Amino acid sequence: MTNTARKVIGVIGGSGIQGILEERGTRSHKVATPWGPPSGPVEEGEVGGVKVLFLPRHGPGHTIPPHRVNYRANVDALRSLGAEAIVTVSSVGSLKEELPPGTFVLPHQFVDFTKGRPTTFFDGGRVYHVSLADPFCPDLSRRAAGVGRELGTPFSERKTYVCVEGPRFSTRAESAFFRGFADVIGMTLVPEVTLARERALCYACLAMVTDYDVWADRPVETKQILEVMHANSEKMGRLLSKLLPQLASVPDCRCANALDDAGV
Question: What is the reported pTM?
Answer without folding.
Answer: 0.94
